[in-house]
Amino acid sequence: MEDRAPANIKQFEERLIDVSESLPKRLRQCADYVAANKDRIAVSTVAEMAEGAGVQPSAFMRFCRILGFSGFSEMQRLFRESYAGSWPDYSTRLKHLREKAEGSASALLAEFVDAGRASLESLLKTIDAKTLDDAVEALAKAQMIHIIGLRRSFPVASYISYAFEKMNVPAILHSGVGGLDNHNAIRTGDVLLAITFSPYSAETVDMVEAVSARGIPVVALTDTIVSPLRKFEAITLSVSEVDFGAFRSLSATLCLAIVLSVAVGTKRSE
């Protein structure tokens, strides 16, 4: 590829955004996986990354070249150099649990606690303060807040709905029961709060598209820089969760949901 390789993580993310929409299906899988798992690039093999993306290693290598790298090794080197010294240290006790009690409940607890801690630390470092303020401002001014978050996002959406109810903030939770999206209930003066993570809910994306086309503001909680919600003019709050095995917790996401709920409730009561 003629383009020079990204020189830093910011350039990498910009390149990923530029190319992701035009990629064929298999390479788009690579883009989605990389965007959601940038923390894995520095410590994984190309075979492991390809397996995570659900593609052949040759396809993942092609993806690397499309981004401007000579191959996976060059892309990995960028992340190793950028993250050197910033990887979280594991305590002696955690190592002991992993080595001596693998698969036990106490070992799993240690793993998930560590993943949650890393997710929370990442949220604190990466959340944009102005975007968070803009999201709170938009939601606090809304006549009605419409909330949608399905499947893995549903616990987050239902918690926000519960919190708003307790703080007397007018809100409606769209659950998709019976296949009804109820998007016609969203009126001028309302705001849609949409929550979805990779693999993204088609129903949530469709609602955001329909509502945005009507000029109704959208606040989005999502995970990656290639999230389909970014195609719309939404106020986007990004949150990334560190997973353990095939399971991904909601530690950072629920923390952000609590912050958003309390900040909106506080602002409306002023």
TrEMBL record:
The record, for Pfam families, names: HTH_6 (PF01418), SIS (PF01380)
Instruction: Using the record's annotation, list all stretches that form the SIS domain.
Output: 135-270
SUPFAM superfamilies given for it?
Homeodomain-like, SIS domain
Gene3D superfamilies annotated for this entry?
Answer: Glucose-6-phosphate isomerase like protein, domain 1, Winged helix-like DNA-binding domain superfamily/Winged helix DNA-binding domain
UniProt KW Transcription keyword: yes
The alphabetical list of record keywords is: DNA-binding, Plasmid, Transcription, Transcription regulation
Query: Looking at the keywords, is Transferase present?
Result: no
Single GO molecular function: DNA-binding transcription factor activity
Q: Which PANTHER family match?
A: GLUCOKINASE, TRANSCRIPTIONAL REGULATOR
Q: Provide the protein name.
A: Helix-turn-helix domain, rpiR family protein
Q: Supply the source organism for this entry.
A: Neorhizobium galegae bv. orientalis str. HAMBI 540
